Every structure is written in structure tokens, then in C-alpha cells.
From TrEMBL:
Span of the signal peptide: none
Stored Gene3D superfamilies: Glycogen Phosphorylase B
Domain Glycosyl transferase family stretches: 163-310
UniProt-recorded name of the protein: Glycosyltransferase family 4 protein
All residue ranges annotated as the Glycosyltransferase subfamily 4-like N-terminal domain in the record: 18-125
Species per Swiss-Prot/TrEMBL record: Variovorax defluvii
Superkingdom of origin: Bacteria
Amino acid sequence: MKIAQVSPLWEAVPPTFYGGTERVVANLSNALVDQGNEVTLFAAGGSHTRATLVPVRRQALRLDPAPLKSELAAHLLLMSEVRRRADEFDVLHFHIDLLHFPFFEDMADRTLTTIHGRLDLTDLAEAYGRWSEFPLVSLTHQQREPMPSANWIGTVHNGIDDTHFSPLTKPTGAYLAFLGRIAPEKRPDRAIDVAIRAGVPLKIAAKVDAVDRAYFENCIRPLLQHPLIEYVGEVSDAEKPGFLGNARALLFPIDWPEPFGLVMIEAMACGTPVIAWRCGSVPEVLEHGLTGFIVDNEQEATAAVKHVGKLDRARIRAAFERGFSAKVMASAYVKLYHGLPAMSLPAAA
């Protein structure tokens, strides 16, 4: 099958540091190639893939030092290039939310759109209703709740490369980990509170976007003075397995309808349990008492810290392999590709 994967241009594929969607696209593209498909990846320059790369932009938008740049113009150029070459592919798989809808209305039946973001925003339901002919895929069933009547054709959990992460033979287990972004909805303040309550060191590996800089300076930086708390900044993809694998547990104290939460399965791939708030995708990703603990408040999270050592890291890794590897994800998408309306039409004479 000839498949186009269309990635956002914010980060390289995969990202050097933080990045969720682009990391999923990287894992999916490689796994599809490994399964014998012809895959072309439209992405930012600096990407690395086993697919055929079409670098639409010189470098990822976030890494571009230019003080002034147009994210909209960059993605319009991306749409133009994919449209120009669309006839080369059986399936066009988009990971850019709904930006492509006006450009591909005449071939919506051979597109697949994975929605990676939240759907409870003003105007989204109306827009998805306007372009209802586009087949959509959710990351979790919970993600669909704001738009239950949209054209959903499947749910595919995100997957990651099972060779990049692996359980450590002798993890130190001396600290709790927080990995991701410093943002109000990610609640690093909760993670800090839980670590202090439990008396266990916390290492925070996270980026700070410009939009969250004031929150970091005013709300989080003062909390970093506590001797149990260490802010290490962003960690690279190469550093992530050691950071997660040596942790006693990953804290995932979110306060928003998280569509998936890639860091949870990255921790699981390392055999590291996750302590997460009952919010968004968490109940669909974690199995309480097996891969971690699902909690409702700081008191329950603090108690969970004392019990994570009882969880079997080999069983956590096995649960990851069953449900969240890149191979499992790619196989699920191939089934959806074959079910697209255009794939069932007879070939032209």
C-alpha cells in the first residue's frame, strides 16, 4: 500500500526533545515501512525516518531561530505539496487536525485524519460537522465525548518503538519523575506537593513554552527551592529511557481532558509504574493496580507512592507490549486504511 503520512511542522519527526504528535508519526511511519508498505512522510527538515522523507520546510518551526515566521504559511505550503502529489498514494493520512479539509474535499474518501488534540473548543464541532465526509480516528474513546456524532471510524491508541525503551535490570527507584511541559493543565505543582508529602525526591524534566513562561516564573519556580525538588529542563529522546526507567514512578497529575498522554506508555515501556489523576484518557491507558494507580487527589497519590514498589515491572512492560507498541498501532491503522470507502471501489478500467 502507498501511504502518505502528513505531520505538523512544529517539531522534527521524531522531535529531538518534547513533542507528542510528531513522535507518534515517526513511530507509525517506521512501523508501516517495516510491515512492507510504501510510506512517504511529509514533515519538517531535520526529520529521520525509514519512510521516504519530503522535507517541506528547512527545519522545525520551534527550532527555527528566525524571530518572525508564519506558522500558517508553512502549513499552507505543506498542504500545497501534499495536494500536488496526492495521486501518488492510496491513502493520505493527516495528523494536522482539520487544516486540510478545504483542500481535499474531492478525495476525502481516501483520507484518514487522526485527531491528536482536545475537542471541547468553541467552533470545532461546527467545523467538523461542515466537513463530515472526512473519516476520523480518535486516540481514546474519551476524546470523542465533545463530538460523539462526528465521522469516527475507529479508535487507535498511540504506540511507540518497543526497542527504544526497555526495563532496566537494576533501576535505582530513588526518585519520582515528572516529564512533559510546564503548564497549568499539566499541574507540576501537584507533582511537587505529592513528592513533598511522600518525602521522596522529584525530578522535573519539562520544557517551558513562551505562553507558559509567566506561570513557570510566578507559580512553579518558587516551589523549586525545596530540597526534594530538582528541575532538570528538557531531556533528549536518548536520555528519556534512563530518566523514566530509573524512576520509582511517573507522576501524571493532569487537570484537563488529556486526549492520550504519550509519557504514560513511555514509562510503561520502561516497566515504570504511573500514578495518574482520573482525568481524560487516563482510565483507558492505565490499568489500576497493574500498570500504576489512578487517583483522585493528593492524599491518594501520596499513598500510592508508598505502594508502587509492589507492582511488577515485567508485567507493566508486558501490558505495554500488548496494547501500545508501534507494531500494534500500525496494524490497527492498516485495517482502517483497507476499510476506507475509496479502497473498496473497483479499479478504473
